[in-house]
Design a protein that fits this description.
Distance between the termini: 27 Å
Helix content: 25-40%
Order of helices and strands: EEEEHHEHEHEHEHHEHEHEH
CATH topology: TIM Barrel
CATH architecture: Alpha-Beta Barrel
Radius of gyration: 17 Å
Length: 248
């Protein structure tokens, strides 16, 4: 069996050590593994190389604002689960962030990989539309759930699934991380928070952007709105430190 990973360079799986740049564990020293493939298509996605393939974009109408498409062969690599675990262990980090794409599309394979990493804490980045199989769920310390708002370009019937949002809302391991680009987006966050009883102490506003200037400009209005409505704030620390770069 194998996992389908994103690549840093062709053939080189995106497994690396860095800091967690977002959410409640921002600043923690972690290992990352980035899986390929996603079931949504955000127009501003900063990892479009995990899903926006040459030849697929027009056929399946999955737009991205950059217009750039990616060769699947250069940006995907299959990796045996035991080998993926070995590379994670080689980072020396005791906490693993599993990201994508949408990593829970490969939940069963991830559970098998983690059998080789019994002492590693697991944090999963997810768009909130999928379910971890029990063998994976039992290993998860933290879910970073990022439901996609209207400005992502995803249809709400695909991106905002009531049964999944309600399930995450009552899971104390789940933290909600909303990407916001303009003040009106916060009203949408508040409406979803009320509708699905999302705990405000576990709900974060995060600026959309892939450079420090854009992030800082949005933080200027995000911080006072978060304070007004009792929400949390997260920046994107890795962008400030490393730029919008793979493997960071």
């Amino acid at each position: 069996m194998a996992l389908t990973l994103a690549t840093i360079t062709p053939g080189d799986p995106e497994i690396f050590a860095s800091i967690q740049g977002e959410g409640p564990s921002c600043g923690a020293e972690v290992a990352f593994i980035r899986l390929s493939r996603c079931n949504l298509a955000c127009v501003w996605c900063d990892t479009a190389y995990t899903w926006h393939w040459e030849g697929d974009a027009k056929k399946f109408r999955r737009p991205h604002r950059s217009g750039e498409t990616f060769a699947r062969a250069a940006n995907q690599v299959k990796l045996d689960e035991a080998e993926a675990a070995r590379l994670v262990a080689a980072t020396g980090r005791k906490r693993l962030v599993i990201t994508g794409g949408e990593p829970l599309l490969q939940g069963a394979a991830l559970a098998r990989m983690l059998q080789h990493l019994p002492d590693v804490e697991v944090e999963i980045e997810t768009n909130g539309t999928t379910t971890a199989p029990p063998a994976l769920d039992v290993r998860v310390t933290q879910y970073n759930v990022s439901p996609k708002l209207a400005h992502s370009g995803n249809a709400p019937e695909l991106a905002l699934l009531p049964e999944r949002l309600r399930a995450y809302a009552v899971d104390p391991r789940a933290f909600f991380k909303f990407v916001v680009a303009q003040p009106d987006d916060v009203a949408e966050v508040l409406a979803l928070s009320d509708l699905y009883a999302l705990p405000k102490e576990r709900t974060y506003l995060m600026p959309e952007g892939t450079d420090s200037a854009a992030l800082s400009a949005r933080m200027d209005w995000i911080e006072p709105l978060a304070a007004e409505y009792g929400l949390q704030v997260t920046d994107r620390a890795h962008i400030h430190l490393f730029g919008d770069t793979r493997g960071t």
